[in-house]
Design a protein that fits this description.
Layout: E1 3-7, H1 14-24, E2 30-36, E3 46-51, H2 54-59, H3 71-79, E4 84-88, H4 90-102, H5 104-109, E5 110-116, H6 125-134, E6 141-145, E7 159-164, E8 169-173, E9 205-209, E10 223-227, H7 230-241, E11 247-250, H8 252-258, H9 260-265, H10 268-276, H11 296-322, H12 325-344, H13 347-360
Parallel strand pairs: 2-4, 4-5, 5-9
Antiparallel strand pairs: 1-10, 1-11, 2-3, 6-7, 7-8, 9-10
Helix pairs in contact: 11-12, 12-13
Organism: Sphingobium agri
Pfam families: FrhB_FdhB_C, FrhB_FdhB_N
Protein name: Coenzyme F420 hydrogenase/dehydrogenase, beta subunit C-terminal domain
Length: about 350
Amino acid sequence: MEDSYRDRGSSGGMVSWVAAELLQRGLVDGIAHVAPADPDAGGRFFRYSISRDLDALNRGAKSRYYPVDMAGILEEIRAVPGRYAIVGIPCFIKSVHLTCAQDTVLRERIVFTLGLVCGHMKSRNMVESFGWQMGVDVRDVARVEYRLKDPSRPANWYRAQLSCRNGEERQQDWWHLVDGDWGSGFFQNSACDFCDDVVAETADISFGDAWVEPYSSDGRGTNVVVVRSPEIHALLRNGMEQGRVALSPVDAGFVRETQAAGFRQRREGLAYRLGWARRDVKPRKRVHSGHHHLGWRRKLIYRLRYMISRGSSGAFQLAKRLGRPGIFMAWGRLMLKLYHGVTYSRGRLGAAFDWAERRLG
Ligand SMILES: Cc1cc2nc3c(=O)[nH]c(=O)nc-3n(C[C@H](O)[C@H](O)[C@H](O)COP(=O)(O)OP(=O)(O)OC[C@H]3O[C@@H](n4cnc5c(N)ncnc54)[C@H](O)[C@@H]3O)c2cc1C
Ligand code: SF4
């Protein structure tokens, strides 16, 4: 079975809602998810942890575009008997299933998987780069918020916040940050170039954002949910009947539309990349290498994204080593100008690409 819903902006984060239901109804003893960490204890801003009550669960809400690993929580699940749910991006959920296939203890204890729709993962360097641009040294940062919620602004106007150890808070909209155009691929993990799972297909339930109008302009944020587990479906229906959660059924086409960019990048974009990116690896994917139907401008967009995702780490490392963040900013601004010209027809470059497209077809 597979059913899809859109929440009506009144339910808060749907992941947290479902996870809370699982805990409160005693269906699980713990939820493994990504929560803020103390950077002094391990140098990381986020890590996987297991929440066993609602307070801990709520402290871990919100999206974290930060690399993490599951080794610690898998150890804890092995060591502490109980039933667990794991929240994760598609590749992590798939890894959980593969691990469970070989580990009977984990298989018995991990009873639900809650998947997050995923565009790509960022590297931890992004936090430091945000710091450069907000005038904060990353060593002085105590907490990171990638997306502040503000009901008075469209949900797709991301605003990041860095909270400093001295209590100061710095905020900036993503579009004012050189690496803040999500689609351009700054600091993208290289594995994401070969990923074809957008909606966490192997999870019991998947959650995403409704990136179509009018929902993307609704500052409360609107989730889309794809449910595949009868038990979790029953929880949702119960919540709807009792008026504790407001969901409307939608079809698969609606969900697909909300993730149109993600599907383009990991269907036609992936088929194109398979032909030339990383010739040393030949992953088997649901799409085959091919690009005959793509125009030159579309190909250029995929090439540029690839260049930006690979080049941003190099430019960042060089700037850091030389103690000159300006090197990264200058490189980033140049690449962004090019990307925006090709992709959105912005500026003089955009006009030049439009002209070339009219001439060349
Ligand atoms: C790297 C990444 C890329 C994403 N890309 C897209 C996209 O392209 N399109 C889209 O529609 N949605 C994307 N999402 C999902 C989206 O940002 C929301 O997480 C999702 O819609 C659920 O929102 P919510 O308000 O219900 O979450 P909340 O109720 O706030 O709960 C979020 C839950 O997810 C957990 N969590 C946060 N980050 C991670 C992580 N990295 N790994 C494991 N658990 C985590 C939190 O601990 C919390 O329990 C992405 C998320 C991530 C982490
Ligand atoms: S795009 Fe795919 S490989 Fe990359 S983080 Fe998301 S699920 Fe994992």
